[in-house]
């Protein structure tokens, strides 16, 4: 876990925000990461672009897991961090619950970019730049889900 994620998780836990407030903060993080990824792609910075794309999707999976009260969300809260396997399990479960396979597919793409673009630096900008559409989709999907659930 990186320091930034640890700080964010700690702050969110300590503030004891309600579900909607936490979702809104995470959505802002996802949107910021997506915007930064676009900037890094323009600058031809593969490593940072890859990490920001991954982080945007990670935040969306966390939001959706929280809003749908998945056990993985509760486990992450209890343990004080989101393990990668909890994110993967959440994406799979969400795809089934929501009948939306793109949630799991987008997570899989983001994780692949995280490994081969960020950690291993084996991809190029050309390898990842078309994947931004998947990240844009999940950010927008998450935003609409928050809006829909807050209207209830």
From TrEMBL:
**Which molecular function term from Gene Ontology is one that the record holds?**
helicase activity
- Write one Pfam family the protein is assigned to: PaREP1
Record key words, sorted: ATP-binding, Helicase, Hydrolase, Nucleotide-binding
InterPro entries assigned: PaREP1
Q: Which domain of life is it from?
A: Archaea
Q: What is the name of the protein in this document? A: Superfamily I DNA and RNA helicase and helicaseubunit
């Amino acid at each position: 876990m990186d320091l930034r994620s640890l700080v964010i998780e700690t702050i969110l836990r300590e503030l004891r925000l309600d579900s909607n407030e936490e979702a809104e903060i995470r959505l802002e993080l996802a949107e910021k990461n997506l915007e930064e990824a676009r900037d890094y792609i323009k600058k031809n910075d593969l490593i940072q672009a890859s990490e920001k794309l991954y982080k945007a999707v990670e935040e969306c999976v966390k939001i959706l897991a929280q809003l749908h009260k998945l056990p993985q969300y509760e486990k992450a809260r209890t343990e004080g961090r989101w393990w990668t396997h909890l994110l993967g399990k959440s994406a799979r479960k969400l795809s089934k619950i929501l009948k939306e396979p793109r949630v799991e597919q987008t997570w899989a793409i983001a994780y692949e970019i995280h490994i081969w673009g960020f950690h291993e630096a084996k991809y190029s900008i050309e390898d990842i730049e078309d994947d931004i559409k998947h990240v844009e989709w999940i950010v927008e999907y998450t935003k609409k889900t928050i809006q829909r659930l807050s209207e209830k």
